Amino acid sequence: MAQKFDPDQALLLDNQLCFALYSTSLAMTKLYKPMLDELGLTYPQYLAMLALWERDGLMVSELGEKLFLDSGTLTPLLKRLEAAGYIARIRDVQDERRVHITLTAAGRRLKAKAQKIPGCILTAAQCSVPELIGLTQQIRGLRERLAG
C-alpha cells in the first residue's frame, strides 16, 4: 500500500534528504579536519590523494571525473599539492593538452601517515565495517540515480 503524501510533512527541514546529506557532510568534514591538518591537506586535496594512491598517473581529466570536480576547481588544488611536493604534473608527449599527475616520493610517504584516518572515521561513526560499506553503497547508488 502506497504511503499518503503529506505536503506539510514533506516541507519539514528534518524530513529533507538533502538536509540530512548536507548536515552529515558538514559533520564528516569537521571530523576529518584535525586529522587532515596533521597531514597538511584540505579535504578536497585528501580526496585527490586518495584517488592517486589508488591509481598513480591519472590524467587531470580522469581525476576531475573521479572527484566530480571541474578544471577550475581542480587546477588550483593540484597546484597546491605540487607546491607541497606531493605530486608532479607532467604533460603527455603525444598530446600536450593531456596532463598526467604522478605522486612524488613525499606523496607516496604521506599515504602511510593517512592510513589511520579510516579507522578513526569508523570509530566515530559507531558502525560496523559492513554497515559503513552498505551506507556508502546506498549513497553512491542515490548519487548515480540523481545524476541520471
Mean pLDDT: 94
| Gyration radius from CA atoms, angstroms | 19 Å
Please name the fourth-level CATH homologous superfamily of the largest domain.
Winged helix-like DNA-binding domain superfamily/Winged helix DNA-binding domain
Number of strands: 2
Helix content: 55-70%
SS strand fraction:
5-15%
Just give the CATH class of the largest domain.
Answer: Mainly Alpha
Largest sheet: 2 strands, antiparallel
- Classify the secondary structure makeup into a structural class: mainly alpha
Please give the oligomerization state of what you see: single chain
Q: What is the overall number of helices?
A: 8
Distance between the termini: 27 Å
Walk across the major sheet and give the strand order: 1-2
What number of domains? 2
Domain HTH marR-type: 14-148
Keywords: Cytoplasm, DNA-binding, Transcription, Transcription regulation
Organism: Caenimonas aquaedulcis
Subcellular location: Cytoplasm
